[in-house]
């Protein structure tokens, strides 16, 4: 029996590539090839897509009449039109859980670095300023502060657990209240911003969250407030954020994600009260390899009939409505 044909899109982790080469008929787009011509040449045989980046929209999905599964690398899958995949009867998977602790650790580190001015203190020492005078007392502190978390999913809960150890008062915003948790719930972004000293976002990229953190929310956070984002850049009105920082509407920001990565606004780079990271929330070898193994396992289990490990909400498993109606 021929091995299922899998098309690699974007750069895959070596653990994924090696596994796919051993167990499947892996097709990779040659770097010097005509992409359109190559896709046309393999379209009729592709049964799975292993995604390491790039847009998997409805038009791309429609090119593969035997497509059964789209295995995405990452907990976020806004690059995949999962609604269209569901209409086609195509399974979509992501790689949650294995990156939760890594991202939560980074979120806490970014928050501390921003509030306690670690990056600017480092620059102060490197510039030789310490030999002239002590570093000014930092404006921020975690003592007695209130943390508002936007999006209390897996990562949000892990951040909250860590923040408890720092003695922070914790509240959260989300679509629904979670009565089993001991944190204060807000159904309004403006209300939680008004209540918080530090606003930390782990919101996913959806139509409902697009530029959800806007000028009104930042104004509610206030001039002593700090904004941290480890979710998605599209959830923030970046122009409004720049203006809020320039005008003193909020005090500081720590950002791991941006609206147009890897392009970061020059205005943000110029500010000393902003900590900028290159989207490294899950970027350790340990965690990225774990994500890769999960991506591979989703493909393996789909084709051996046991069902994927981590299907996304739009394509649940098992589900009678998910019928492979194009085969």
From TrEMBL:
Keywords: NAD, NADP, Oxidoreductase. Belongs to the D-isomer specific 2-hydroxyacid dehydrogenase family. It comes from Flavimaribacter sediminis. This is 2-hydroxyacid dehydrogenase. CDD domains: HPPR. Gene3D superfamilies: NAD(P)-binding Rossmann-like Domain. The keyword Membrane does not apply. InterPro entries: D-isomer_2-hydroxyacid_DH, D-isomer_2_OHA_DH_cat_dom, D-isomer_DH_NAD-bd, NAD(P)-bd_dom_sf. The keyword NAD applies.
